[in-house]
Here is the input.
Amino acid sequence: MTFAYTILKWFAENGRDLPWRHTHDPYAVWLSEVILQQTRIEQGWPYWERFMRRWPTVECLAAATEDEVLREWQGLGYYSRARNLHEAAKQIMQKGEFPQTMDGIRQLKGVGDYTAAAIGSIAFGLPVAVVDGNVYRVLARHFGISTPINTTEGKKEFASLAQSLLPVKEASAFNQAMMDFGAIQCTPQSPQCAVCPLQETCVAMREGRVGQLPVKLKKLKIKERRFSYYYIRHHGMVAMHRRGEGDIWQGLWEPYMEETPQHMIPSEGPVLITKNVKHVLTHRILWADFYLWEPPSRPILPPDYIWISESDLDQYALPRLVEILIETIHH
Here is the structure.
């Protein structure tokens, strides 16, 4: 029994009964896809019904004001979806009809590959596979694919696999079956493996990797940090210290630095040389202010600071940002 046949058979018995599945009206299908982009079905369902009651056709929606559409959308969040929906309705009215090709559907404001494939296959029977989070999960587990789903390579691999499995004459049912299968059977946590019709052919099940697939590369949040550097110079000597473990630039040397003001440096005396120097690292953006301070006597600093002859500085490994800052002093 082929993968597609098994999925379709499961869908016939277990598919969700949703109101937008009882129609091939592209407007109704499109509206459901936009509402459900970042919304759970139970939350989005009443919104879909309200929209369909108030604006039963694209023409009605296009004639509404943006304010009316946004008010009806209230509580769903991601308001750009509602604005795009309204813009696209006006686009459709200019064309005279709902576009019926993948290219035409993709040109609608706010419609990406996934939404275009869903509308195209469900409303017009176009043989195009949808790939969303549910589809990634089902395919990654069943075929044991560990290519990360949020890389260009992964997107291509999964899109072409999904397309190769699609039964051309049953694109609509297959796409909806894949979405439901991922949402009900092959769920992110605690999937129903014991009663899964694909268990005999599922690579992840056989290899005990269900919990590890699909693979998603962690997108690290970019953190911003602000440093104030004080180049403290006294009789040709400069105060420097070596950076410790567990942070950027481990083991490199830098002048006196405060990340949060500790007020060890008097406010009178230091001269601001340069402000808001931006320095970009992989997962951080640093902003640095740089002061020159030439006190009459050596100030008391934390014990890890040593005094280095200014002429010997180039024998010490310095972070690039510190090099840039020191260059501004010597120019």
